[in-house]
Amino acid sequence: MQNVVQAHGAAIPTIGYGTYGMNSQEVHRVLPAALRAGFRHIDTAQVYGNEAEVGDCVAASGIPRAEVFITTKVWVSNYHPRHFGASVDESLHKLKTDYIDLLLLHWPGSDIPLPEQIGALNASVKAGKVRHIGVSNYNRELMDDAIRLSDIPIVTNQFEYHPYLNQSLLIESTREAGLAVTGYCGMAVGNVLSDPVLKEMAARYGKTIAQIVLRWLVQQDGVVALSRTSKIERLPENLAVFDFELQDEDMAAIHARARPNSRIVNPPGLSPQWDSTEP
Ligand SMILES: NC(=O)c1ccc[n+]([C@@H]2O[C@H](COP(=O)([O-])OP(=O)(O)OC[C@H]3O[C@@H](n4cnc5c(N)ncnc54)[C@H](OP(=O)(O)O)[C@@H]3O)[C@@H](O)[C@H]2O)c1
C-alpha cells in the first residue's frame, strides 16, 4: 500500500518521481528502475518534452495503469481555449493512456483570463480525460481565485519548497483550503547536500542528507515531495523515508535553515508576485 496524501478525493502518492530536464534517453534509462523501486507517482509536463517516454515506460512496466499516478502540466502557450483541449489530447496520446490522474496549470503568467483557464481544466475533467486538477506556482491570492472559480475541487498547489525557502504563509493557506502541498526542488538543486546541520542530523539518524530532507518534507501535514535522481542506486534511498521520524526539535532546526533570497525557480513573465515571508 502506497503512502498517500488525501486531498478533495485525490489520493496522491507522497513521494513522486520528477522528470524535469530528462531527455528521452534519460527517461528510458531511469524511469523503469524508478517504477521497479516502487515509485508510483510520476511528475511530468508538456514543456518537459518527455511525456511520450514517460508513457512508454509506464506501459512497458506491466504495472496496472490504476496503480500509477501520473501528473502532467499544461504549458502557458496552450492556455488559449483554442489550444487547451487539443494539448490535453496530445498529452493523453503521448502518455498512452485514456486519463491523466492530475492535470496542473504550470505557471500563472498568461494573458488568458483565469476563469477561462479554470474553465478549460474543469472541461477536461467533465470530458473524462482527467481525474483531478491543480495549479502550480500560484501565490495565495491566485490560489484563492482558482478555488473560487472552479466547480471541481483544486487538489494541489505545486511550488518550490526546501529547507532554505520559508513557505509558511503559502503552506498554511494551501492546507487550510484542503489542498495538498506538492513541493519541488526539495534538494535546492543540490545545495542542501553540503549543509552542516543536515549533515550532523543525517549521521545521528543513520540516514543520508537526502533522506533527512525528504522526511522533513513528508512529515509535514499534507505535503507531497517530488524527487529526481539520475542515479539508479539512489531511487530506493529516496523512497525509504517512512521507517523513521524526525524529532520536533530537528524538524524546527531544519525550518530554521530558511534564509532570504533562496528562491531558485523564478522565471520572469511566468512567476506571480510571491508571498514573502522575508522582512
Ligand atoms: N512546477 C514547476 O514549475 C516545477 C519546477 C521545478 C521542478 N518541478 C518538478 O519537481 C521535480 C523535482 O525537483 P528537482 O528536479 O529540482 O529535484 P530535486 O529532487 O529537488 O533535486 C534533484 C537533484 O538532487 C540530487 N539528488 C536527488 N536524490 C539524491 C540523493 N539521494 N543523494 C544525493 N543527491 C540527490 C540529484 O542529483 P543526482 O541526479 O546526481 O542524484 C539532482 O541534482 C522536477 O523533476 C519536476 O518534476 C516542477
UniProtKB/TrEMBL annotation:
Keywords: NADP, Oxidoreductase. One of its GO terms (biological process) is methylglyoxal catabolic process. SUPFAM superfamilies: NAD(P)-linked oxidoreductase. It catalyses: hydroxyacetone + NADP(+) = methylglyoxal + NADPH + H(+). GO terms for molecular function: methylglyoxal reductase (NADPH) (acetol producing) activity. Residues 15-256 form the NADP-dependent oxidoreductase domain. Belongs to the aldo/keto reductase family. This is 2,5-didehydrogluconate reductase.
